[in-house]
């Protein structure tokens, strides 16, 4: 049986790997796959944060829902999370859509879109890390 600490470390490692994969895919102009990898990276990072806070994460792909759960589990982070949700509402919704569209829908992503999503992932990770510690 895997301990919560081991699962936390695994999720963080997977999150880093998906991020590194996204960077490689972006360089190779595989924009749909890069967007999917960015979504996976953020999703796994947020699930790891929930584990760190002692919360079992739900079976969801919604990064907005995961962010709200972090705010509920750790009220000192609620202001930061609310700010992130407001500032990046469209980008976070787009990341959630990427989970499906990058795999099943004939949708072409541009370099600019993926770079914007990458910047949002970076900002959200930074803000949550600083808020939760």
Can you describe this structure?
It is a single chain. This protein is an all-alpha fold and 133 residues long. It has a single domain (4-132), classed as Four Helix Bundle (Hemerythrin (Met), subunit A) (Up-down Bundle). Helix content is 79%, strand content 0%. The protein contains 6 helices and no strands. Helix 2 packs across helix 5 (89-104), helix 2 (31-52) packs parallel to helix 6 and helix 3 packs antiparallel against helix 4. The model has no long low-confidence stretch (mean pLDDT 94).
What are its keywords?
133 residues; mainly alpha; Four Helix Bundle (Hemerythrin (Met), subunit A); 6 helices
Short description:
With 133 residues, this protein is mainly α.
Q: Which percent range fits the helix content?
A: over 70%
Identify the CATH class. Mainly Alpha
The CATH architecture can be given as: Up-down Bundle
Task: Give Rg in angstroms.
Answer: 14 Å
Number of helices: 6
Report the sheet-strand fraction.
under 5%
Structural class: mainly alpha
Rounded mean pLDDT is: 94
Distance between the termini: 27 Å
Succession of helices and strands = HHHHHH
Strands, count: 0
Whole-number total of structural domains: 1
Question: CATH superfamily name?
Answer: Nucleotidyltransferases  domain 2
Query: Within the CATH hierarchy, at the fold level, what is the topology?
Result: Four Helix Bundle (Hemerythrin (Met), subunit A)
Low-confidence stretches: none
Shape: globular
The major beta sheet can be summarized as: none
